[in-house]
Design brief:
It contains 10 helices and 12 strands. By secondary structure, the chain is an alpha/beta fold.
């Protein structure tokens, strides 16, 4: 089944060229099946790239999903065409009286910045509070994960001395849970952050359970025991060249970054990376949508 997105969203052409089943809004309106409603709070500066990455992962389920895009009102992105934002994005004020089956809160390039110093922190807190009653299951990603752990449970983030970047081995520590159905015990996924969280701080909170960890990258996936919130520090949605683009961007800025770990073959940045995380992303997002959103959300939720 397809994802249901606006007819003229830039991601449509990209996904269709990849033979991904995309149903435009006009076609979906002629079907009698109620799609799942998923809201994406996109905090990344590369809005269109992030949209496409997430839509690609949400498309691999037998469920029709109506995706809506949310932007902050308290901060105007500087790297996205305003016309794109005005056309495809909504604000919290416009959706706060609605309910959604699922929500994704993305990462943001806010390393080393206190949560309270983030321009849109108050708005983000308002949205996360609203999620408690208006969203059945929320996936918090990277900065969104650290922000969620801090807002809901007071767990502080830890600044790393240098950026953690690369493709890392991760180990499942909660066996036989629907989120990992079909996934190997050891899986690979990109990491790109200079923020961390202590596992002992998470273990100290009774409502939380650690799902996957990495010997190098630390805690990877955490969820609440009621399955209403997932916190994922890795980026299984990343494209093959995402880490490369970040690396060369930092090189141009004179930041002297380290090569992303276990990413370029033979640590040679002239060679194209080999993707080892594509299936991980498809499985995790598909399982989240199927087992924690579709099968658990009450029909009367709307």
């Amino acid at each position: 089944m397809p994802i249901n997105i606006p007819n003229s969203l830039p991601a449509v052409e990209t996904l269709q060229n990849e033979n991904i089943f995309v149903m435009t809004k006009s076609r979906a309106e002629h079907q009698d099946i109620r799609p799942l409603r998923v809201l994406i709070l996109n905090l990344m500066p590369t809005k269109i790239v992030t949209e496409t990455q997430l839509l690609r992962k949400l498309s691999n389920t037998p469920i029709q999903i109506q995706v809506e895009l949310l932007k902050t009102a308290s901060y105007i992105p500087q790297h996205t065409d305003p016309t794109h934002l005005d056309t495809f994005y909504t604000t919290f004020e416009e959706v706060k009286d609605q309910k959604y089956d699922g929500m994704i809160i993305t990462g943001a390039p806010l390393d080393y910045i206190r949560f309270e110093d983030v321009t849109y922190w108050n708005e983000a807190c308002e949205i996360m509070e609203w999620c408690k009653t208006n969203v059945y299951s929320t996936m918090h990603m990277c900065w969104g994960a650290f922000a969620g752990l801090y807002y809901y449970f007071g767990i502080p983030k830890v600044d790393l001395k240098e950026k953690l970047s690369g493709v890392f081995e991760h180990r499942i520590v909660k066996d036989h849970v629907p989120l990992f159905r079909g996934l190997d015990d050891i899986f690979y996924a990109p990491q790109s952050r200079a923020t961390d969280v202590k596992e002992e701080d998470i273990q100290a909170v009774d409502e939380l359970e650690v799902m996957a960890v990495s010997d190098i990258a630390g805690v990877t996936i955490v969820k609440t025991k009621d399955d209403r919130h997932f916190f994922m520090t890795c980026h299984p949605e990343y494209d093959a060249d995402t880490l490369a683009k970040e690396y060369y961007r930092d090189v141009e800025k004179g930041l002297n970054p380290k090569l992303p770990y276990h990413y370029f073959p033979d640590d040679d940045p002239t060679q194209a990376p080999v993707v080892r995380w594509r299936s991980t992303g498809q499985i995790i997002f598909s399982n989240w949508i199927n087992h924690y959103v579709y099968q658990n959300t009450p029909y009367e939720w709307q």
